[in-house]
Amino acid sequence: MPLHPDRLFPVDQATRELARNIFATIEGAPIISPHGHTDPRWWGENAPFSDPASLFVTPDHYLTRMLTSQGVAFEDMGIGRGAETDPRAIWRTFAEHYYLFAGTPSRLWVDHALSEVFGIAERLSPRTADAAYDAVAEKLAQPEYRPRALYESFGISAIATTDGALDDLRWHRKVRDDGWSGRVLPTYRPDAVIDPDQSDFALNLDKLGEMTGCDTGTWQGYLDAHRSRRAFFKEMGATASDHGHPTPRTADLPAAEAQALFDRIRAAKAGPDDAELFRAQMLTEMARMSVSDGLVLQIHPGSFRSQSVAVRNAYGADRGFDIPVPVSFTEALRPLLNAVGLEPELKVIIYTLDETTYARELAPLAGVWPCLLLGPPWWFHDSYEGMRRYRASVTETAGFWNCAGFNDDTRALCSIPARHDVARRVDSSFLAELVTSHRVDEEEAFAIAPLLAGGLASRAFRL
Amino acid sequence: MPLHPDRLFPVDQATRELARNIFATIEGAPIISPHGHTDPRWWGENAPFSDPASLFVTPDHYLTRMLTSQGVAFEDMGIGRGAETDPRAIWRTFAEHYYLFAGTPSRLWVDHALSEVFGIAERLSPRTADAAYDAVAEKLAQPEYRPRALYESFGISAIATTDGALDDLRWHRKVRDDGWSGRVLPTYRPDAVIDPDQSDFALNLDKLGEMTGCDTGTWQGYLDAHRSRRAFFKEMGATASDHGHPTPRTADLPAAEAQALFDRIRAAKAGPDDAELFRAQMLTEMARMSVSDGLVLQIHPGSFRSQSVAVRNAYGADRGFDIPVPVSFTEALRPLLNAVGLEPELKVIIYTLDETTYARELAPLAGVWPCLLLGPPWWFHDSYEGMRRYRASVTETAGFWNCAGFNDDTRALCSIPARHDVARRVDSSFLAELVTSHRVDEEEAFAIAPLLAGGLASRAFRL
Amino acid sequence: MPLHPDRLFPVDQATRELARNIFATIEGAPIISPHGHTDPRWWGENAPFSDPASLFVTPDHYLTRMLTSQGVAFEDMGIGRGAETDPRAIWRTFAEHYYLFAGTPSRLWVDHALSEVFGIAERLSPRTADAAYDAVAEKLAQPEYRPRALYESFGISAIATTDGALDDLRWHRKVRDDGWSGRVLPTYRPDAVIDPDQSDFALNLDKLGEMTGCDTGTWQGYLDAHRSRRAFFKEMGATASDHGHPTPRTADLPAAEAQALFDRIRAAKAGPDDAELFRAQMLTEMARMSVSDGLVLQIHPGSFRSQSVAVRNAYGADRGFDIPVPVSFTEALRPLLNAVGLEPELKVIIYTLDETTYARELAPLAGVWPCLLLGPPWWFHDSYEGMRRYRASVTETAGFWNCAGFNDDTRALCSIPARHDVARRVDSSFLAELVTSHRVDEEEAFAIAPLLAGGLASRAFRL
């Protein structure tokens, strides 16, 4: 039995007992998933998943990166030209290396999914690989394991996807047109039409113009095109935008300078800092639009994408070679904050991969600016230790109410219940420790727990 | 009863028992407060405090910033033009939002002050707000709640204020002239005559010249004026200077370059880096003067002040919008250290808001340079978790004896006993954990505890 | 009795019991010491150590720096012109200040060495100083305390030294020629012929040319000379090179630019960034050679050496004034990684003094690049708290198998068993905590323990 009912709880017996009691009140709370990367097509089409390997292994960079680190070829994970096509072979490769995940969150997530979602009692290993494969494959053929059924059995009450500005949101429309009760929201992620360093940027702006009828050859037309797409996304249910910039830099240029900057970029005459400056300016423009249309602005900065050029060229993006860099927010956010930071309607959610910013900058920032909320521990820090460091670093300065609650940020559908389970256990444990060290009262801990398990996320994302 | 006698102690029973025993030996030790921001006028005039709101809420940026973060208007906290003037209304606003402080040090401090200083049994809430207000207001009218009486009932043995170089120290003189037994020391904080970026810098230098009879139009006269003011402060009891620079950068320019730099700044012909360079040079000049006059040099770097221009303009400084930035000391302190770092009489106390410097730089620096001492966890880190991180990061490389002991650094008078209480509890717990993990012996822990509770502070500040 | 059998174990009783049981299975495992600074002459000559002070105190910068920080003169520690020459007097000075080490790893190491290696029952203090001195001195005269005997009684199975590129490795040869069974391996540390900022760099390159018969006046000849020395080191048993650069920067210049850079440096016409760029380029060249010859590449970056110029001039290097600086690896390692990072034969071990890089950069890097391994907590972080932060920060993203295992990195011979003892205790405790919080199973913990105690180090260093 891989899952122990007391997993992730404190070892001290009294604290563990309290953590268990707190957790019991939130264990079954509906899952609110306001930021993530599930494929909208799953929800729209509701087709069965084809096989265990393509559901669990091949697309999950948390899993493939660990195998890469120990010399497993991408091809053996089903990635790239000439890759293995037999899902069972891929699954066996994964199972052979599953011991590598000891002590990692992926281990908790996969254990949880196999046990709780697929009813598999034994831990994955070379010995159990085939039986596990068969069990998962058998279930995937059943209607209860189609995406919408999983949404329901997972107890999800709302889930957001992440969608390019040029996306037609057809699958979101399909969800709506089908009259299915699930709530699947798009999120406006316009990186491809904001980041001049992205390939096809100019082409993307042309398409943006066509889609919106705006003249994206001009600064004002370009901004209007964003407004138009944001309105469309909002109409389709979006409550937020999201921005994956290399840095958190923002800018608030005088109108003429912003226009000249846009013109240089559009004319392919950009100087060396212009792309960065343009992204910086656009964060402030997005914030201004948020003040008008109410979309919550999310900033996910500080990942150096595709560090290995050879891997990106041969196997594409999202193969585990995205590596964090140091970031600092105090100076970077200043222009945006001075432009619109006191607007009562604005909400900006900040994420970080640089944990040094938690106590040094983000908690002080969120602990005073009314527009700012701290996103949950992100990516590599979406983990037992990562969550503990986050709460210990953030709470004393920002409290609980300046946090945006948990979100799972995942493209691995079956890990969603596991990720919320981990977060709820760690938060229950943190609250229990506050109580047994007499920093909060027991009744407060029980009152705060449901906020952390969903209430704050609802409030932050206007769900 | 908001205060539990075992608060902040470890949960493990044996360790808790030991922490309790260690704490019992230092709980009642005199409070040494060698760095802080109480108003000298309180001590000199000894007038009653007017009301609970202006004592607790309005001037305390720890409290107001949290309310600001949740959208409470400054005016409702009694700040700014047209602000609420009824202290009871301000107090009610505070009480309505008091739940926000769950898990923060402010909560521990306010709970402690209301309970231990004002004898209020119930936690502050909208329900208890009026009763608490009445109880505090009633006490404030009594002679036992005037500043000097509080000094005595708090068990303070010495308290330092922080005073501008142009201050006439009239209230310190009044304390002395009155023959009161309390020890209230000024601290020489010359930022306004050292930082060319401060408003009125040139005017301040003119005033400094008038006060001292030195020609502050020349570099040597300017330095002489500092010497003169330092001598005056020392005569009035000061044992330390303090410097709140944006960065910890120091410089040790050749004499001619330093003079030319001063001349450029005095002539309003400064280049872009000149203000920073001048501050850097002046830290080394201050250190040189410290070698002569024995004042301990404190450096508080790395806060970006008044990040919101609109808030600063409308509501002034110290409104919670001071946000830390990354700092590094190794390179920054090198000029100063190579100039005077081996002088046996020099003491330099370093504070940081960037906790990454604890283990990486400050413990290694203080663990070798005889002049350097580490200040206690500062500002946002003056907290349970902050103190634990500090001890865990610093002790293994710097030991206990290279630390400057605790100081409360507060302008909130009634939080002084609370802050020392928290520090003593956390230190007792840390020592107890060292013992139960067999890293120090029990008798050593009992010997070190009084050092952390006051001995090191006395030694560091020559009190 | 200074050593408690449960030292460094968790306080929770069930977790402590488990940690004890795990530790029992690895306590006696052979010591693998693949990186360190013991003197090869000790192993080659096998002469008795002269006295307690020169064995324990004078050369150990961990110890002398703490005394320096509290004002003890170098001379009183036997360092510098006119220094104390009576080892007993030096020992007494050390003993008088031994209380300073409470809570530090040095205290654990010295306690362990005196107790376990020299059988001294009481803790060092002014009272016990002379008796301890006599006991150590008496033992040092016995054959059981000569270096090779200590190697054997410590249970060392292999130990690497760190040797300059120009070293003739005579003592390693002597070990081999004597037919002694101990395994003493050199490590290729070519800083003096790679770092243009080192004194005598040009002279060193001339010597390198003479030693190898290569024309070190040309870029290709210079590279050939490295190849030649690496081959010699490898023949003498080396399995690794080591590089102590100021930063982790790497470069991969086009051949013509690299040659031009070398020519500028060789002609003493280097520009301001050239030394740094040359070091950066050479890391990549070393990695390329590693692909060919199989030597494992170690990078130890980020120490600002000899911060006090006066101390360096008067007392030499390694006097405790080496202070860490902030580093970042993501961008710095990119050129090297893109050049050779996917080569299956390459192994690169990264160390850091900047703990912020653990979770932010190093675990993500080692968790995907097949060539990268994380070195153990280094220098100031080779400690109880340092190791705990390391495991907590690194494991969730990199797992255990992307770590290079422990190495003691010491020049203090008698601290070797102590350092491995600390590491094994902390790792046993960490594993026990993983089990009691149900993150790994008990049998996994017992399987991982011997890897951490030696298996990973063997694998990483190809021993």
Care to describe what's here?
- Three copies of one chain form a homotrimer.
- Chain A is α/β, with parallel strands linked by helices and 463 residues long.
- Chain A has two domains: 13-45 and 156-461, Alpha-Beta Barrel (TIM Barrel); 48-145, uronate isomerase, domain 2, chain A (Orthogonal Bundle).
- Helix content of chain A is 50%, strand content 7%.
- The first copy, chain A, contains 20 helices and eleven strands.
- In chain A, the strands form four sheets. In chain A, strands 6-7-10-11 form a four-stranded parallel β-sheet, covered by helices on one side. In chain A, strands 1-2-4 form a three-stranded parallel β-sheet. In chain A, strands 3-5 form a two-stranded parallel ribbon.
- Chain A is globular and about 65 Å long.
- Chains in contact: A-B, A-C, B-C.
- At the A-B interface, α16, α17, α18 and α19 of A face α4, α6, α14, β9 and α17 of B.
| Quaternary organization | homotrimer
Number of strands of chain A: 11
List segments of chain A where confidence is low: pLDDT < 50 over at least 5 consecutive residues: none
What structural category arises from helix and sheet content of chain A? Answer: alpha/beta
Within the largest sheet of chain A, what's the order of strands? 6-7-10-11
Helix content of chain A: 40-55%
Query: What is the mean predicted local confidence, pLDDT of chain A?
Result: 97
CATH architecture of the largest domain in chain A: Alpha-Beta Barrel
User: How would you characterize the largest beta sheet of chain A?
Assistant: 4 strands, parallel
Shape of chain A: globular
Named CATH topology of the largest domain in chain A: TIM Barrel
The tally of structural domains of chain A comes to 2
Keywords (chains A, B, C): Isomerase
Family (chains A, B, C): Belongs to the metallo-dependent hydrolases superfamily. Uronate isomerase family.
Pfam family, one (chains A, B, C): UxaC
Pathway (chains A, B, C): Carbohydrate metabolism; pentose and glucuronate interconversion
